[in-house]
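Practice set, problem 2.
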Amino acid sequence: MDQLLQMVSRAQKLSMLDGSSSYNQVNVDLVDRENTAFTTPWGTFMYARIPFVLSNDGATFQTAMDVAFMGQVNKFVVI
């Protein structure tokens, strides 16, 4: 955290992305949606986007951000 704060301490502008709601923006591949299925009294449902309860949701989100900002990380974007 200290290193992150040092990286942004001299920034003229600062914007923050809410990571907790961003998880819900990463799509689950069509082939893998079956693995997220759950059953309720109203039927069986599958997640279209990554839910918070998956074991690798943090790593998947980190990878998505690294790919999205490739070449810009540590220049003007800190993830």
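Problem 2, part (b): a different protein.
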Amino acid sequence: MNYELRIKKRKKACPAKPWRSGGYTIIETMIAVSLFIIIIMSGMGALLNANLLHQKSHNLRSIMDNLSFIMEDMSRNLRTGYHFRCLVGNDNLSDVSTPLSCQSGWGVAFEPATGDPSDAADQWIYYVNPAGQIFRSTEGPAAGNFFQITPPEVVIDQLFPFAVLGAEPPASNKQQPFVGIKLVGKIIFKNVITPFALQTSISQRLVDI
């Protein structure tokens, strides 16, 4: 009996909309769900975009780390080497045994710390090819001994990055052998071009003055 009285009182309080006894209508629920989906999709788009930017930045950082490691590796090997020859102009790799200084060369050849100047097969050589890639040989200038050490995304624009001073024997110069390297180029990754410039100088560890 009390329950029927409460129902009658509720209908009298809202006679035009007796069905609104509580809860939400279907239209209100659909609007709420639609707004929720729009907000979630907007947030997911921003999240995916941020993740993509982070991945690109991480990959670019990895390439730069590889390039820095290559520069450090060249510096370490050149520092402990001797008998430097700067490759300039029309020099070919058939004769790189004579020491030679230069202000700007496309490559440098030298004897490693345990190398023998009379044996061309143990020379180390670094050079930049016309396409802007750095190649290395640890077994002399013979064909087939060179391999690329820079990542394919890296292009060296400075095709004459090596400078060698004081390479000649002490009788003709009084300067300690000195090598400078300046790498200027760009990284092309996912259609994004990022310029870079790395520079270092190396003094021969073995006294030669």
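Answer key, part (b): The longest strand covers residues 178-189. The chain has a mean pLDDT of 82.
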